[in-house]
Specification:
The chain has 13 helices and 21 strands. By secondary structure, the chain is α/β, with parallel strands linked by helices. The longest helix is centred in the C-terminal third of the chain and has 24 residues. The radius of gyration is 23 Å and the shape is globular. It binds 5'-deoxyadenosine and iron/sulfur cluster.
C-alpha cells in the first residue's frame, strides 16, 4: 500500500517563481546587482537543497559571494546529524553580528535539518535576534514567499512546522559544477536507527516519480554533466511508497539507457535492503560506477541490534560477498560509529575484525553524538569521551592502513578517470575520480576537465592515487 505523499502542486511552485520576479523588480530597482551568500553544512542532500535555494535567489536577481560583508542575504543551511556541526553553526551565526552591524538591512536566514528541532528553533528565536528567517527542509519550496514576508513586514519569520515531508517538483536549481551533479531521487527516512535524528527532521520516505527523475537525468546529460549521483537517505527503498512497479535497480537501468557517455553513482544504501538484483543491475549497466557506500555502523551484533539496523554481521558479510561476486572490482566504502552507548571492548574488537575482513576502500568514522529525542539518547552510556577517542584513533589508523594498501594495488594499472577539476598545486595540477570514486591527481592540460581519460597510476598514498595520462603507442 502506498502511503499518502504530500505533493506540492506545480501551480504553487509557479506562484513562488512569480514572487521571485516580484523580488527581482524590487532588489534590482537601483540598477545594482544584489549579492547573496549560501553557507552549507552536512551531507550531499543539503548541498542539493542549497542548489535550489541558490536557484530561487538567482531568479530573484541575486549574484553570489563568499564574503559575508558583501552579502545582502545570507542563508545558512544546517545539519543536525552530529553536535559538532551544530556548535559550528551557532558559532558562525553568532559571528554574523559584526556583518549585520556593518551592513544594516542585511537579511540572515537559517534553514535545514537543525532548525527542524524545536529546541534549536527556540534558541535561535530567543538568543539570536540577528536571525530574520528560520525555515525547515519541508518549507524550502516556499522560500521566496518567506523571504518576501521578511522584506515586507520587517518582522522575523519562523517556519519550521512538524511535517512528514513533501515532494516538490520544478524548483529552479543553480548547480555548483559543470561535471558532477546531484540528483535527489527521494527524501526522508523510515529506518529510525536509534542514534539518528534524520527521520525526525526530514520526515518519512517519499520517492520522486520515475518519470521526473529520468527527465532530470536526461537534462543533466544534455547539459554535459558526466557524473550523476542519485541521492537519498536510503536509495534501496526507492519506489516502495509509489506502487508503480519501479524499484531502485529498475531506475538505474532506465537512467543507464539514456544515450551519452556519463557515470551513474548513488548514495546512501542501507544494508537491510540492498538486494542481489541491485548488484546484478550495477554489474550489467555499463554506466553504473562500481562503487557502493554501504554503512555498516558496527561489527558487533549486540550493538547493531541496539542501533535498530535490521541486519547482523553475518548478513552484512554475505551481502559484501554477493556484491563482490557480481563485481570483482567493486569499491566498497562505509560509515562507522564509535562509542555508541555501552559499546564495550569486545564490541569494538568486533568492529575492527569486520573491517579487517571486508577491507573497505575508505571508511568514514564518527564518534557517537547524542541527539535529543532519539532512543539512544536515553540509553546508559558509561564510557568517557577519552575512552571513545582511543577507539576512534585505533579505527582511523586501521582505516588509513587499509586504504593505503588498497591504493598501492592500483600502481602500474591504467584506469579510466573522469577529470573533474584543478588542484591548484603543481606538479599534479588536475584532479579526477576513478569509476570506483577514488581520488586521482595527475598532470595535464585543463582542457581535459569534464572528460574521461586513461591514466596510468604511478604512485599512491592513503588518500589518493597519482598518475600519468596514458598515451597509446
Ligand atoms: N552520532 C554519530 N554519528 C552519526 N551518524 C548518524 N547519526 C550519528 C550520531 N548520532 C553517522 C552515521 C551515518 C552518517 C551519515 O553519520 O554513520 O551513516
Ligand atoms: Fe539515519 Fe539510519 Fe536513516 Fe541513515 S538509515 S538516515 S543512519 S535513520
Amino acid at each position: 500500500m502506498a502511503i499518502e505523499r504530500k505533493v506540492i502542486e506545480p501551480e504553487k511552485i509557479e506562484a513562488q517563481r512569480e514572487i521571485c520576479a516580484k523580488i527581482f523588480e524590487r532588489v534590482t530597482a537601483d540598477g545594482q546587482r544584489p549579492l547573496a551568500m549560501v553557507d552549507t553544512y552536512g551531507c550531499q542532500q543539503n548541498e542539493a537543497d542549497s542548489e535550489k535555494i541558490r536557484g530561487y535567489l538567482a531568479e530573484m536577481g541575486y549574484g553570489f559571494t563568499g564574503d559575508e560583508f558583501q552579502a545582502d542575504v545570507i542563508v545558512v543551511n544546517t545539519c543536525a546529524v552530529r553536535e559538532h556541526a551544530e556548535m559550528r553553526v551557532f558559532g558562525n551565526v553568532g559571528a554574523l553580528n559584526h556583518t549585520k552591524k556593518a551592513r544594516p538591512g542585511q537579511i540572515i536566514a537559517v534553514c535545514g535539518c537543525m532548525v527542524q528541532q524545536e529546541h534549536i528553533a527556540r534558541k535561535l528565536k530567543l538568543s539570536y535576534p540577528i536571525v530574520d528567517l528560520v525555515f525547515g527542509p519541508h518549507e524550502l519550496w516556499r522560500f521566496p514567499e518567506l523571504l518576501l514576508q521578511v522584506m515586507d513586514r520587517h518582522k522575523r519569520v519562523f517556519a519550521a512546522e512538524k511535517s512528514d515531508g513533501v515532494v516538490a517538483e520544478g524548483i529552479p536549481q543553480s548547480r555548483d559544477g559543470k561535471v558532477k551533479a546531484w540528483l535527489s531521487i527521494m527524501y526522508g527516512c523510515n529506518n529510525f536507527c536509534t542514534y539518528c535524528i534524520v527521520p525526525y527532521v526530514r520526515g518519512r520516505e517519499r520517492s520522486r516519480r520515475p518519470e521526473d527523475v529520468i527527465a532530470e537525468a536526461r537534462e543533466l546529460v544534455a547539459q554535459g554533466y558526466k557524473d550523476i549521483t542519485l541521492l537519498g537517505q536510503n536509495v534501496n527503498s526507492y519506489g516502495k511508497d509509489l506502487d508503480c512497479g519501479v524499484d531502485f535497480a529498475d531506475l538505474i537501468r532506465e537512467i543507464n539507457a539514456i544515450p551519452g557517455d556519463f557515470l551513474i553513482r548513488f548514495m546512501t544504501s542501507h544494508p537491510r535492503d540492498a538486494t542481489e538484483k541491485l548488484f546484478k543491475t550495477m554489474a550489467e549497466c555499463e554506466k553504473c560506477a562500481h562503487h557502493i557506500h554501504l554503512p555498516v555502523q558496527s561489527g558487533s551484533d549486540r550493538i547493531l541490534k541496539r542501533m535498530n539496523r535490521h541486519y547482523d554481521r553475518a548478513r552484512y558479510l554475505e551481502e559484501v560477498a554477493i556484491a563482490r561476486r557480481c563485481m570483482p572490482d567493486l569499491v566498497i566504502t562505509t560509515d562507522i560509529i564509535v562509542g555508541f552507548p555501552d559499546e564495550t571492548e569486545e564490541d569494538f574488537a568486533d568492529t575492527l575484525s569486520l573491517c579487517e575482513e571486508v577491507r573497505f576502500d575508505a571508511m568514514f568514522t564518527f564518534i557517537y553524538s547524542k541527539r535529543v529525542g532519539t532512543p539512544a539518547a536515553t540509553m546508559p552510556d558509561p564510557y568517557t569521551r577519552e575512552q571513545k577517542q582511543v577507539h576512534f584513533d585505533q579505527l582511523t589508523e586501521l582505516a588509513n592502513r587499509i586504504s593505503g594498501e588498497k591504493h598501492k594495488e592500483y600502481e602500474g594499472r591504467t584506469l579510466r578517470v573522469l577529470v573533474d577539476g584543478e588542484t591548484g598545486k603543481e606538479p599534479w595540477n588536475l584532479s579526477g575520480r576513478t569509476n570506483g570514486g577514488r581520488l586521482v591527481h595527475l598532470q595535464g592540460d585543463k582542457a581535459l576537465i569534464g572528460q574521461f581519460a586513461d591514466v596510468t597510476i604511478t604512485a599512491s598514498n592513503t588518500w589518493a592515487l597519482y598518475g600519468e595520462l596514458h598515451l597509446p603507442l
